[in-house]
Amino acid sequence: MLAHARNVSIPRRTPAFRSTGLNLPMTPQAPELNALLGRVAAMRDRAAFAALFAHFAPRVKAYLLRLGASPALAEDLAQEALLNLWRKAHLFDPAKASAATWLFAIARNLRIDAIRRERRPELDPEDFMPEPGPAADDGLVLAAEEARLRAALKDLPADQIQVVELSFFADKPHSQIAAELDIPLGTVKSRLRLAMARLKKMMGDAP
Amino acid sequence: MTHPAHHPSEELLLAYASGAADEATGLIVAAHLAYCAACRLQSRELDALGGSLLQELAPVPMSGGALDAALMKLDGITPFQRPTRAASRDGTPVLLRSYIGGDLSDVRWRRVGPHLAYAPLLRRGATRARLLRGVPGAETGAHCHAGLEYTLVLKGGFSDETGRYGPGDLQVMEGDMRHSPVADPGEDCINLAVTTGPLRFESLLQRIVAPLFGF
User: Fold this and answer.
1) Is any Cβ of chain B less than 8 angstroms from the Cβ of A90?
2) Tell me: the pLDDT tens digits for B89-126?
3) B74 to each of A73, A74, B70, how far by Cα in Å?
4) b/e map of A132-164 (b: 16 or more CB within 10 Å)?
5) What is the pLDDT of residue B68?
6) Which listed site, A51, A53, A158, B51, has its alpha carbon 20 to 30 Å from A103?
7) CB spacing of B68 vs A1 below 8 angstroms
8) A107 close contact with B: CB closer than 8 A
9) Dihedral angle, C-alpha B204, B209, B212, B214, nearest 10 °
10) Cα angle, residue A56 at apex, residues A46 and A116 outer, rounded to 5°
11) Interface pTM (ipTM) of the complex?
């Protein structure tokens, strides 16, 4: 069955993502991942699912390990996250989130459910008036924005990226992060603020 | 609807996006989002930050048979359907209805004196989420906080030393920050309140009575 994954026709890259001409299989970028997820939603495409599994399951597993899950639990929950993708693919809206962001939300919520035995309260789609979203080829616009966000992340100073990462991957209050890094709490908060301001500026300044 | 003027801090929105926030705190943040387009946008951006970090994580290989095991299960999976629910009669957000077990107008209030009432929604250790209701002009009594106190106005409004709060406004108080909220005149004020520790009242009577009600 693995062979199916290799037969998936990857949508043509948009020029923004064309990279340096290496012929090696590249990490699929947002537009491809979105398209694969769209195929799972529209035609229950198992090959597309296999490609998404190959890409995301090891990343979700890494995410859960970073947050302290045992290897066995991380593997189980990563599996479950991808099965959730199959179960909920028709709810995926590329105008609202990229496939990676959508998967992140699934993994985050699974972890809260499985490890903390709580649920994460979420807004119901009926709870607010629909807003004017991004225009027609919104999925592409959003994908490009997320590519910029990732590029912006890479440009952050090391001490800032560290607190951003720990905020997502440590499940610890900032006071504890401060203690472990052996810096004052105020420094953690100010680094975080600087990082957020900088990310916003880079996102806002981009064409 | 007017736009809320008092918002969760970026740190609080980040805790909600990362999943670090506990359920009661998540509930009050999510309820604020129902009123606030600006924070919904920010919350979406923070989710995207999580997605970007996930995308950049060094992958850890799954065990050999993981994909085949998943593929075997696909046919047995029925697509998720959102549960259909009876519409709210009074505009109570769906999010809150699931915790209340109905509309705000269905809440069975427990009285605390002639002017105030409450209804518990959620309790985890020392953290509690409750609905609070005050008649117009009701006073909570001056207090400080052993932990954090988040208050989100759902209906009506209140004022204290820090300002005026209307529907969708989120107030965050902690530790030594002392305040004595008074409900606005006109209509009952209904708030969602989350506390991570007891309130510390100034009046002796309240200091004696409050613990009996779990405040």
Assistant:
1) yes
2) 888 888 999 899 999 999 999 998 889 999 999 998 88
3) 20, 20, 7
4) eeeeeeebbebbbbbbbbbebbeebeeebbbbb
5) 97
6) A158
7) yes
8) yes
9) -70
10) 115
11) 0.91
